[in-house]
């Protein structure tokens, strides 16, 4: 009996929220001064035509969820809120001074951590402080991540009044044993309540995040969670593969044994059967790991070829410049990436010295920019072409050769100067992108640094 496609292609690989991926950034050619120059160039090119995006990282959580790979600070002390808000607003002031002209803000996303750890009053202070020095684009999307257990009606109304129309709730799984293993206890009733509040207030897009491959999770758990979710009909869904990376996250992902985590064919069956049920429920597959109802903006963006992907994941529209505010945030000027200090005390210290708190980054080469476009095409449109001379690079046919086995397995099709991913190949999009990843090919990792692709 031959091996399955899952066994064949289930290898460590990036999720491609950027290219180059963070482990392949060249910090030796990066500096804060180069970042500032890159940022200003991108702002001058794009602010008037499309505006900018802001990702604001709110890192605090009252308890540790063991499935989470985000940068966070676990505390029950809410007196940490005010100093953090002041620090983020100071960082924004430094950027506004550098940019010169008033930024036109097209997107804001509040991520974490747990953004709803902060009181509605403090979140209002933060967002109002951002908007006081900005203009809001005519067409804009403001969104935030809400924890079903602590998102209040006041949170939702306050953010709605500030222009937020999209909220995402982390659900993961409804099985109590799975919830205990990942230290995220939240009954269906809590999710139902906050979803209905958002709908009543007028939010236009409500999203639920589901995760497959969690410890102790089986196929019935996944399907039951989707059935429960369908009762609430969120406008869009993220259906993620759990990234088991205990070598990176340490004890945070050691509350269970490796053997407790579903592997290979079982994990893929959870995805395939879950996806089938989502499609039956009226959702459409959008890019990798995402699903949306036909009425949702993400579906429309995908249909029109406007879907974009960056460090926030998939977005319904593109901005050339995304500024990251807050500890550990990553910014993207298109020409370079920059990450803020990851330790809260270091972040505060840099701001005390009136410095933009960037500690590492990467300036993209001409080759990087070409590869980035191909990977974005594959991730957002399931196809790419090098017919345009500006998208040709010398190793392109090496990548094509590497993909011949996947072509034989029916995962993609070749055309004249192009490849397109088949329906069968969509779950393997990360593997297909890896054929274009020249930086990883030239310096293969000696140890595992990425989660498994399946």
Q: Topology, please?
A:
Layout lengths: L4 H5 L22 H19 L1 E7 L1 E2 L11 E2 L6 H19 L4 E9 L7 H12 L3 E12 L6 H9 L2 E9 L3 H6 L6 H14 L3 E8 L6 H14 L3 E6 L4 H4 L14 H17 L3 E3 L3 E3 L4 H7 L4 E3 L2 E3 L6 E4 L4 E3 L3 E5 L3 H9 L5 E6 L2 H16 L1 E3 L10 H7 L1 H5 L3 E4 L2 E4 L7 H6 L3 H5 L12
Parallel strand pairs: 1-4, 1-13, 2-3, 4-5, 5-6, 6-7, 7-8
Antiparallel strand pairs: 8-10, 9-10, 11-12, 14-15, 15-16, 17-19, 18-19
Helix pairs in contact: 3-4, 4-5, 5-7, 8-10
What this model shows, in words?
- The protein has 454 residues and is α/β, with parallel strands linked by helices.
- It has 2 domains: 25-325, pyruvate-formate lyase- activating enzyme (Alpha-Beta Horseshoe); 366-454, Arc Repressor Mutant, subunit A, CATH 1.10.10.
- It has 17 helices and 19 strands.
- It has helices spanning 5-9, 32-50, 81-99, 120-131, 153-161, 176-181, 188-201, 219-232, 246-249, 264-280, 297-303, 344-352, 366-381, 396-402, 404-408, 429-434, 438-442, and strands spanning 52-58, 60-61, 73-74, 104-112, 135-146, 164-172, 205-212, 236-241, 284-286, 290-292, 308-310, 313-315, 322-325, 330-332, 336-340, 358-363, 383-385, 412-415, 418-421.
- The strands form 5 sheets. It has a 9-stranded mixed sheet, sandwiched between helices. A 3-stranded antiparallel sheet has the order 14-15-16, with helices on one face. Strands 17-19-18 form a 3-stranded antiparallel sheet.
- Helix 3 packs parallel to helix 4, helix 5 (153-161) runs parallel beside helix 7 and helix 8 (219-232) packs parallel to helix 10 (264-280).
- The radius of gyration is 21 Å and the shape is globular.
């Amino acid at each position: 009996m031959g091996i399955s496609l899952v066994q064949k292609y289930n290898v460590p690989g990036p999720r491609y929220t950027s290219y180059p991926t963070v482990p392949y950034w060249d910090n030796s050619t990066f500096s804060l001064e180069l970042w500032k120059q890159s940022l200003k160039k991108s702002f001058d090119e794009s602010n008037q035509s499309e505006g900018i995006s802001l990702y604001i990282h709110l890192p605090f959580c009252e308890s540790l969820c063991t499935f989470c790979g985000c940068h966070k600070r676990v505390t029950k002390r809410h007196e940490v809120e005010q100093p953090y808000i002041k620090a983020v607003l100071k960082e924004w002031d430094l950027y506004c001074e550098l940019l010169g002209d008033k930024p036109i803000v097209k997107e804001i996303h509040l991520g974490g951590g747990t953004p709803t750890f902060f009181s509605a009053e403090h979140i209002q202070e933060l967002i109002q402080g951002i908007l006081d020095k900005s203009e809001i684009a005519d067409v804009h999307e403001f969104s935030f991540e809400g924890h079903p257990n602590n998102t209040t009606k006041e949170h939702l109304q306050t953010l709605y009044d500030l222009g937020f129309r999209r909220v995402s709730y982390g659900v993961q799984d409804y099985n109590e044993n799975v919830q205990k293993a990942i230290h995220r206890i939240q009954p269906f009733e809590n999710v139902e309540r906050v979803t209905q509040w958002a709908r009543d207030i007028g939010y236009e897009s409500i999203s639920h995040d589901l995760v497959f491959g969690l410890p102790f999770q089986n196929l019935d758990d996944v399907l039951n969670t989707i059935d429960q979710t369908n009762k609430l009909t969120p406008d869009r869904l993220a259906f993620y593969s759990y990234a088991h990376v205990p070598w990176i996250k340490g004890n945070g992902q050691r509350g269970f044994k490796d053997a407790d985590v579903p592997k290979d064919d079982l994990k893929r069956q959870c995805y395939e059967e879950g996806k089938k049920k989502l499609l039956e429920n009226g959702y459409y597959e959008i890019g990798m790991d995402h699903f949306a109802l036909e009425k949702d903006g993400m579906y429309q963006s995908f249909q029109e070829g406007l879907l974009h992907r960056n460090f926030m994941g998939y977005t319904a529209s593109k901005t050339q410049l995304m500024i990251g505010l807050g500890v550990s945030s990553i910014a993207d000027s298109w020409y370079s990436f920059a990450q803020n200090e990851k330790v809260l005390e270091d972040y505060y210290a840099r701001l005390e010295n009136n410095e933009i708190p960037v500690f590492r980054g990467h300036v993209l080469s001409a080759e990087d920019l070409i590869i980035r476009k191909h990977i974005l095409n594959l991730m957002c449109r399931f196809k790419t072409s090098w017919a345009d001379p500006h998208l040709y690079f010398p190793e392109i046919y090496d990548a094509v050769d590497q993909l011949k086995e996947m072509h034989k397995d029916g995962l993609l099709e070749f055309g004249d100067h192009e490849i397109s991913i088949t329906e069968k190949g969509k779950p393997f999009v990360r593997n297909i992108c890896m054929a274009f990843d020249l930086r990883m090919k030239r310096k293969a990792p000696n140890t595992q640094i990425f989660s498994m692709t399946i």
